[in-house]
Each structure stands twice: as structure tokens, then as C-alpha cells.
Amino acid sequence: MSLRLSDLVKRELADDPAIKGVTADSRKVKPGYLFAALPGSTVDGRKFIPGAIEAGAAAVLAPDDVGGLPVPVVHAGDLRRAYALAAANFWGRQPAVCVAVTGTNGKTSVATFCRQIFAAAGHKSASMGTLGVTISDPCGPDEQITPPGLTTPDAADVAELLATLAEKGVTHLALEASSHGIDQRRLDGVKLAAAGYLNLTQDHLDYHGTMGVYRAAKLRLFETLLPRGGTAVLNADSDQFPAFAAAATEAGQTIISTGKAGEGVRMADRLLTPEGQRLKLIYAGEEYDVRLPLAGGFQADNALVAAGLCIAAGIDPAAVFIALEGLRGAPGRLQRVGTGRTGGEAYVDYAHTPDGLETVLKALRPHTLGKLVAVFGAGGDRDRTKRPIMGEIVARLADVAIITDDNPRSEDPAAIRAQVQDGAPDAQNIGDRREAIRAAVALLNEGDVLVVAGKGHEQGQTIAGVTHPFDDVTETAAALGLEHAHG
Ligand SMILES: CC(=O)N[C@H]1[C@@H](OP(=O)(O)OP(=O)(O)OC[C@H]2O[C@@H](n3ccc(=O)[nH]c3=O)[C@H](O)[C@@H]2O)O[C@H](CO)[C@@H](O)[C@@H]1O[C@H](C)C(=O)N[C@@H](C)C(=O)N[C@H](CCC(=O)O)C(=O)O
Ligand SMILES: Nc1ncnc2c1ncn2[C@@H]1O[C@H](COP(=O)(O)OP(=O)(O)OP(=O)(O)O)[C@@H](O)[C@H]1O
Ligand SMILES: N[C@H](CCC[C@H](N)C(=O)O)C(=O)O
Ligand SMILES: [Mg+2]
């Protein structure tokens, strides 16, 4: 079957060429492609129309009149949405059941939990997000089909990946909806059965400007992306829960609220155990006693949202709660690395926001008989206003704070560290991350706990536009004198 431009943009067209692909990047255009000329945040895609046509573009999607072109031009007010819908129409197939999750922190954890629960219930499943795309086959090993990249990929990549997953027999997909991704319409072509909301705390103000605009981006998942009749799974313990519940109600969705204040999946009790935690959950009047093999109250919050999404996706609730007992944490999220030569435990975690740091340090405190040591930093070319707040939180909640570099990107690393230090005047300041990790490990004794925060699974340190290989787990294990990190 050959698709015409009119099939993609759903309009009657006099000039209706066959379309062979859809992209917003002129460098990816091949003969017969539809090129979407998106005015971006750094360059104006309209600049690349001549190059795209030279490369063989058969049609152009543009925001306004771009003047006499030799190929048909389709205009759209909401161009990014039109681009996402055209890509979805081009690629066609999607896994039968897609669920999405948003929140400042915890999206990757929830997406990987959903993938595991779906697989435990016998479905070929996948997750898409910060860690890339991973498929779980109930009868075989996991398969990673794309490496880590954007949390929510470009709309054409999303459409192609969904078609690839459906082709591979994946029936259940959980995807991360970043605020950038929702705002830039990267998910507008995805047919969602359910959507989850975790929390809204400070991050990304460089992009959104204010918390109100940031919140509006996340609300759009419920206002626009999740259809009427879909299920909204909402963490009732978040202070922003009322706004998300109101949006879901307004949009005609069923709500499953979760957490201590939840009425859908309610956490009636939580007990710390050496293996993780024991949860008493109430769902539809039934009580479930769940041994969650993960540390940290935040992982219980994430597990409940994942459970709600899987129930909304049609999985038998009893099977969902049993599956929680087999969950593995996402790599680099409160991942235990090992024990120091003179005792103490070291963890790698991905906390890179004020609330993430506060949450992980509070989660580790009950496991710390001695001192709590934190190595952390803040990313360059990202929200600057979060830096001193992150410093203040670590200075308050850890016993030893060591500020180091975390992807300074194009910024001066020492200037970023100084901004973090504004909130943590007494913290040590060691720019070189390897040296900072070694200094922290050297402090460890029996009963102490170290968390190396901010990079989690990342495999590189980006300095002045160059990414140098760097892995917190490997570096921490080496500093501990271990050959391999223990899980
Ligand atoms: C600020 C931001 O989100 N930018 C993303 C956005 O870029 P943009 O639309 O502003 O693009 P631009 O660079 O101004 O270019 C405009 C247009 O010209 C096109 N172009 C450009 C050059 C050329 O030669 N030819 C050409 O056609 C581009 O493909 C684009 O369509 O769309 C691009 C394509 O999808 C993304 O690669 C790019 O991500 C940049 C690299 C990025 O770093 N994004 C981060 C901040 C991000 O999106 N993070 C979120 C959140 C993570 C979290 O939750 O913490 C994520 O989902 O990963
Ligand atoms: N529910 C939660 N509440 C607060 N903090 C959390 C929660 N879940 C995870 N965290 C913290 O945030 C870190 C990142 O978790 P995760 O990768 O699951 O979040 P994310 O939303 O996918 O992040 P990103 O925005 O980079 O994609 C964890 O390592 C932990 O420190
Ligand atoms: N998705 C997040 C990841 C931040 C990870 C941290 N290591 C950093 O570089 O700031 C972002 O792009 O803001
Ligand atoms: Mg993520």
C-alpha cells in the first residue's frame, strides 16, 4: 500500500504525492519524504526547506506561507501536532495497549516497573524512555532495541518505534512523557489507554520559565493526550493532585488515585524490612500484603502508580500485586554498588533535582547508623535556579556533602559548582568526579552510607561539548576496590 500526503494530513489535496517517510530533520530527508519545517528553539526549520527539497522531499509541512515551492506545502496552526499525527498515520501500527507516565521524578522507574508487570502477566511488553527502548519477552531475555537518548523521543522516532514494537509482537508498552516531550507534541500521535502522574517539583525552569507553565505542560497529558474514557492514575500524595484530578474529571476519564491518600490503590501501611519494604495495599475492598524488594518510600509510590497503570491496562489486579514482589529497580536508581574496605555501603542514584535529592537522602537515612555521605552536582545548560536549592538540601540532609561536576556541557564547571555551593557553604568542592568519588569512599566506615547522585545509568561526562566515557557504578566499584559492582 502506498500512502499519499492526504492520508497523512487528513485533508483533500489537489496535488497529492506518494510519501515515503516523515521527518523534521532536513539531514534525514530521502526522496519522497514529507519534511516538517519546525521553527525550533535554536534554529528555524524553514531555513532548511531548500536543502530538504534538494534531497528529494515530496512535500513540506510549514507553519505559514513559505512562498512558491516546487512541491506541495501543507500549513498547520499547531505544526508540531500535525507533524506527530502525520508520522503516526505514516507508520500506522502501535502496540495494542500504550500507557504513559509523567512527573518530575520517577518516570523511568514506573515505565520499567510496568514493563516487568506486563511481562510477568504473560504479555510481550516494552518500555520507552530515558534508558531507551527495552522489550521484555515472558519466554526469553530482555532486548534493548535503542540506547538511552531523549526521555521522550522526537515524534517521528516515536511513531517508527511504536510500529517496530508492534511488528515484533509487543502488545503492551509503557512510555515516559517528559514535559518537553508533551509540550513539543512528541506524543500526540500515540493512542493511550491510561496515563499516570507522579509528582511536580522544581526542574526545567530554563525551558518552561515558571512552575505554572511547567505544570500546564504536564496537565496537557490528561487534557489533550489521554482520550475521554481513558484511565488517569494519579498519585494522591502529591500536593498537585487536585489539579490533575480536576483535569482528568473535566476530560471524562476514570481516576485511579494511589498512595496513602489514594482511593484506588491505597497504601494502608508500609514497613521497612532488610529486603526492602512490606506494603499493605487496599484495592477494590481487597487487602494485599506485598513484599516489595526495593528500598525507599519513593519506590513504593512509583510501584503503586505502575500497579494502577497495569490494572487500567486490563491486567488482573491479583496478578499485578504478585508481580510487584519480583520488581527490579531501574539501573542507576538507588542501585547498591557494594561495601567499603572498612565497612559502609555505597549506592549510585539518579537524583538530579531538589526533590530527587531530598527524597533519596531521606530514604537512605533510616539505613545509616553512621554518617551519610553524598557526592552530587548540577547539570550545565539546564535550570540554574535549582543549583543552590540542591546544595542547601544536601547540606541539611547529609553529614558530608561533596560537590562535583555533572555534565557541565557548555558552561564553566567551576561556576556551576559555585552556584551549588551558595546553598552549601561548608561542602567540599572537588570538580573531578572520579576524585570526588574516591574522596567520599575513603571516608566510609562501618555503618556509613554513600550516595553518588545525579548520573545514575549515564555512561559519559559531557564537558565543553565532548562526552568522555564515565560510569558512576564502575568508578564507585573501583574506588571500593571491587572488580565488579554488586547489584
Ligand atoms: C529544547 C529541546 O527540547 N530541544 C529539542 C527540540 O529541538 P528544537 O525543535 O528546538 O530544534 P532546533 O535545534 O531549534 O531545530 C529546529 C528544527 O530544525 C531542524 N533542523 C536543524 C538542523 C538542520 O541542519 N536541519 C534541520 O532540519 C531540526 O530537526 C528541528 O526540527 O527537538 C529536537 C528534535 O526532537 C530535540 O533533539 C531537541 O532536544 C535537545 C537536543 C535537548 O537537549 N532536549 C532536552 C532538554 C529534552 O528534550 N529533555 C527532555 C526532558 C528530560 C527530563 O525529563 O528530564 C527529554 O524528553 O529528553
Ligand atoms: N516518586 C519519586 N519521588 C521523588 N523522587 C523520586 C521518585 N522516584 C525517583 N526519584 C528520584 O529521582 C531519581 C530519578 O528517577 P527516575 O529516573 O525514575 O526519574 P525520571 O522522572 O525518569 O527522571 P528524568 O526526568 O531524568 O527522566 C531517582 O534516582 C530518585 O533519586
Ligand atoms: N533528563 C534530564 C537528565 C539530567 C541528568 C543530569 N546528569 C544532568 O546532566 O543534569 C535533563 O536533561 O535535564
Ligand atoms: Mg526518565
From TrEMBL:
GO cellular component: cytoplasm
Residue ranges of every copy of the Mur ligase C-terminal domain listed in the record: 332-456
Motif (Meso-diaminopimelate recognition motif): 406-409
Catalyses which reaction(s): UDP-N-acetyl-alpha-D-muramoyl-L-alanyl-D-glutamate + meso-2,6-diaminopimelate + ATP = UDP-N-acetyl-alpha-D-muramoyl-L-alanyl-gamma-D-glutamyl-meso-2,6-diaminopimelate + ADP + phosphate + H(+)
Compartment list: Cytoplasm
GO biological process, one term: cell division
Keywords noted in UniProt: ATP-binding, Cell cycle, Cell division, Cell shape, Cell wall biogenesis/degradation, Cytoplasm, Ligase, Magnesium, Nucleotide-binding, Peptidoglycan synthesis
Binding site for meso-2,6-diaminopimelate: 382, 406-409, 454, 458
Domain Mur ligase N-terminal catalytic: residue ranges: 19-65
EC number: 6.3.2.13
Location, primary (coarse class): cytoplasm
GO molecular function: ATP binding; magnesium ion binding; UDP-N-acetylmuramoylalanyl-D-glutamate-2,6-diaminopimelate ligase activity
Positions with a binding annotation for UDP-N-acetyl-alpha-D-muramoyl-L-alanyl-D-glutamate: 26, 151-152, 178, 184, 186
Listed cofactors: Mg(2+)
UniProt pathway: Cell wall biogenesis; peptidoglycan biosynthesis
PTM comment, free text: Carboxylation is probably crucial for Mg(2+) binding and, consequently, for the gamma-phosphate positioning of ATP.
Record: residues binding ATP: 103-109
Domain Mur ligase central residues, every copy: 101-309
Residue numbers of N6-carboxylysine PTMs: 218
Role of this protein: Catalyzes the addition of meso-diaminopimelic acid to the nucleotide precursor UDP-N-acetylmuramoyl-L-alanyl-D-glutamate (UMAG) in the biosynthesis of bacterial cell-wall peptidoglycan.
Stored NCBIfam families: murE (TIGR01085), PRK00139.1-2 (NF001124), PRK00139.1-4 (NF001126)
Family as reported in the entry's similarity comment: Belongs to the MurCDEF family. MurE subfamily.
Protein name stated in the entry: UDP-N-acetylmuramoyl-L-alanyl-D-glutamate--2,6-diaminopimelate ligase
Native source organism of the sequence: Caulobacter mirabilis
Upper lineage: Bacteria, Pseudomonadati, Pseudomonadota, Alphaproteobacteria, Caulobacterales
